[in-house]
Amino acid sequence: MSNIIYYVSFIILGIGIYGIVSQKNLFKQLISLSIIDTAVNIFIVALGYVEWGEAPIYSAITPVANFVDPLPQALVLTAIVIGVGTLALGSILLVHINEKYGSLDPDEIRDIREVVE
Amino acid sequence: MIALLIAVPLAFAFASIPHERLGRYFLPFVALFNLVCLFFFMEPGQILEVGRWPAAYGIALVLDNVSYPFLIFVNFLILMMALSATLENRYGTLLLVLTAAVNGIILTGDFFNSFVFLEIISVIAYIVAAHKDNALGAFKYLIFGGIGGTMYLLGAVSVYVKSGTLNMGYAAFITDPLIVPTICIFFLITFLVELKVLPLGLWAPDVYSNGSSVTPIALGSIVTVSLVYLFSRIFLNIFDLPNPQLVGILAMISIILAELGALKQKNLGRALSFATISGVSTVVTALSMRESEIASAAYFYLFNDVISKFILFTLFAYLGERGFKSNKTAGIAFTFASLSVIGFPMFAGFWAKYYLLKALFQASSYALPAIILIAAVIEAGYLIKWNVELWYKGEDTPENTPKVQDGEQDSEMENEANEVEESFIPFGAQIVTLLLALTLVVIGFMPSLVHNQTMSIANNVLDFRPYLDLILRGGM
Amino acid sequence: MRRVWAILVAGVFLYFLVGQFLPIIPTFGNVDLFTRVAFDIINKSTTTNYNAVEFKKSKDLEDGSANVVTSIVVNYRSFDTLGEVSVLFCAAIGVGILASMLKSKKRIEFEEHKVLMISTGIVLPLILLFGAYIFIHGHLSPGGGFPGGTTIALGILLLMLSNNEFKVTDVAKHVEQSAGAGYVVIGLMGMAIGGVFLINFLPTGVVGNLFSAGVVPIVYTFIGFKVGAELSNVISDLREG
Amino acid sequence: MTDFFKSLIEMLRDPVSAMSVLVGGLMIVFALFAVEAKKIVDSLIALSAISLLSVLLFVVLKAPDVAITEAAVGSGLATAVMLFALWRVDSKADSDSQQIKKTNKQSDEAGEKR
After folding, report:
1. In this structure, is residue B342 part of a structural domain?
2. pLDDT tens figures, B319-354
3. Rounded-to-integer distance, Cα C29 and Cα C17, Å
4. Which chain A residues are within 8 Å of C138, Cβ to Cβ?
5. What are the structural domain ranges in chain A?
6. Which tens digit of pLDDT belongs to each residue from B241-253?
7. Domain limits of chain C?
8. Do C113 and D103 meet the contact criterion of CB atoms below 8 Å apart?
9. Is residue B474 helix, strand or coil?
10. Spelled out in words, what is the top-level CATH class assigned to the domain A2-116?
11. What is the complex's ipTM, to 2 decimals?
């Protein structure tokens, strides 16, 4: 079982960080933040994978416990919902910025701020 | 019993949805209830296992000699804020949830639970930061806070993977010390962002200078105190700080940069926010040295810095850059607070700096004292400049422009003068700022009041044994 | 210039992750569950001694839900979920505050679509039923309060898309408030009966039955309603502006 | 060279590695596209695709709970919220035709959850 999935999530995490630092448009930064969230969630669930384990639910198919580690999954459940909460706030903040400064590009915003102050 | 500190604010927050103004009236009573509960019904040395699951499996709330004084200080600040700030319609509900989250982050003994409370505090901070049409500052804070939160999550899960449990006491006991530094890097990034150490704290000046009476106090004092607690719990009590010299140097650079930044600010709000950054960076530098003397001095410094910034930001929110001509009491409180920040002899600030320098000289480390003195000089520079400017704002303008309507320039002076008359400070804010200014003076005369507390905190924080015994013993 | 700087930062962080962090964590898949807390949580033997849990057979365990992830989220670490619910609560309030402060009150209108109107009439009850199914069976099948509530919110979003007159009224606020208060009340009832906050005071029954996991289905129903109401508020705030 | 291919095939035999290579590779492409796309609408659609692909990965990693939550919350709601914000942000430059295209995408996405 090679660590491919770790490398995949690390690369996507790297792309997310690259996106936040390199993109000027604020909307793109919010999207990169969401990419980072997804990458970290995949990494955490992958940390809990047991090679021959089943989905951690007692059912007719898996009546006896031969499960994957359920705790990282419970943590990711919370992390996903927190990610959406932050995202919803970020979107409404972007609408505010666009309404006040007319654009989402920090350079144009900086010029308008000089004029305003 | 301990869970009431978190359940009651949440219950009131949920109950205050129907009417917008309801939350504002619940907040002072909830803060008072917390303080009464803390003083009369709880004493340190307790553990509460939520849902009666053993500490390693479920979540345990730990009330020991370190979290007890911090809880009292934070709830006292929340009560002061409830009285002094003018809250818009829904902000009361948000601050109730903030009370629950801050109590939670201080009490919890579980890594992932502190991540959830950290996220609650961050979400509320983004909303409060957007107050007074400051959406850009709030968005920048959201991006930094988002990265910080994800790093904390990675740190919490890697602790679980290596130690098998999420409980702070057990995890520290089990993980082998070799891998702790790499895991702590994740926590370190979060604290560098949240505690505004400059390269990662660039969001702070925009957020704190939006001129609202809620944002700098809720974020600058209440959240900062609870995050300093979490920083010292994780890096002094449970794990040890990865390469502390590097962190110390980074924080020292941040002090100097913040002071220089504050010096050249035209706007009082931005100058104060840079001053806050330098204050918290000083505390972080001192804490990163892991000496009980220095840590106790750091907590004293934090106490003085938070209270004086509370006064300065509240008065800035109400007065803006109008002078103190019309309300002398506010002026006195403002001057007391700024003198205390500089470290003037008869104020708490003097003792804060004195204990810190004494402890540092005993530990024979001379880099930080030099920087603290330089910072004090720069602080004295711009704070006195602002004080002088604000005190003599109203006087000199009427002399050189005789009272005759002869030019636009004159009418502009005219409406600025009578604008000074109109600017009133709500009664609650005046009382609170005066009360806090008095506490600064009282502690200036009797520093042992606070110093004994900080000594006991520092001794307890650096000693992991009682914390683990508390968790192993289990309890209620 | 910014790209170079970004690549540098991402590169340094990736080097730290792959070089320093990866060797520490166990390779993918060979995880020894015995060393982890999860082993006792799977076998539901944190307070009692270990005896194998059997679907539809073992009775009155310390936690009765068949879905182990649900038992962690709502029973063992129920405090996280309380915090989790208040994150969404604050996000919904935040969007409400900020949306009401917007000056340009411009409502997003959609093109009237006959096909969409009719298909929504057929599909919407099924979506709401599916959402309710998810959070009622939270302790048996995968899913729970959060996906169930979100599915309901998406059903309401579909309703918004299909006809413009639809408005989310104050009912959503009251549902959100009562569901949230209900969750905290269950925590306090646990405190009153069991002496400790958020204890599972109802009998847990046989693993696998519908009424089996004590407080868990009730808590998940509250969370389902609360999340559904909150997120439809968020969507309607964004739309009304 | 042959042992490289042999190890590659041997690795692809086990479902998780095979899936993580295929789906992971696709996600990396979408992530790069989302970051570098000129128009924000395209990067939003790419983001929604990443969420949906991550649902596949969660299913393969034996995490059905997380898969359902990510499908409903991550791709369903996050995309809807950001689309609404995007319409408000560049509502001036936006034409009606674009809106219709979006509503169809939105309704079938909510529909397939039925």
Report:
1. yes
2. 877 777 777 888 888 888 888 888 888 888 888 899
3. 19
4. none
5. 2-116
6. 888 888 889 999 9
7. 2-31, 68-239
8. yes
9. coil
10. mainly alpha
11. 0.90
